[in-house]
Amino acid sequence: MGKRDVRWERTDGYVLRLARREDVGAYLDGFEALDPEAVRLTGSAPSYPREAVRDFFLRCVDDPTRYDLLVIAPDGRVVGESVINEIDWEARSANFRICLFGPAARGRGLGTWATCLTRDLALDELGLHRLSLDVFSINPRARHVYERAGFVVEGVLRDAIYLGADEGYCDDVLMAIVRG
Fold this sequence. Notes:
Elements: E1 7-9, E2 15-18, H1 24-31, H2 36-42, H3 50-62, E3 67-72, E4 78-88, E5 93-100, H4 110-125, E6 130-136, H5 140-148, E7 152-164, E8 168-178
Parallel strand pairs: 5-6
Antiparallel strand pairs: 1-2, 2-3, 3-4, 4-5, 6-8, 7-8
Helix pairs in contact: 1-3
């Protein structure tokens, strides 16, 4: 199944669109702006080798079980990603994740905008039945966005995420939306 080329633009010039191979340089530059808050709230490593990120990005672009969408600022910088991954076409289910790479992209409604568009792509355009995600309990802002987008808590993995010696553990909250 070929990927549908999708693109949306906000009135302030931000764009959400399907990632392409030629985006690799802009993606790498954007991903390198991943700040400590994004790392903490998503469970990412503090840094990744540039070559590994490049190779992963290029594999994702070609992977038929994923839709990697880029959040692009009006000046052309990649400031985040919204991803449908682990697509099971037979079961019509997938996983969702989103990350805004730095503080300049947060607090603008970009996360809500990208979440809702990605949800609609998954359920309406791709015909998926179920879209699931997990969110750390230390990220109430993201959980609020997901709830506003129609995701429902299905369970909690208590103390499943180790944040380090200073913070200890937090819960991993499992959420999903099912096409009605």
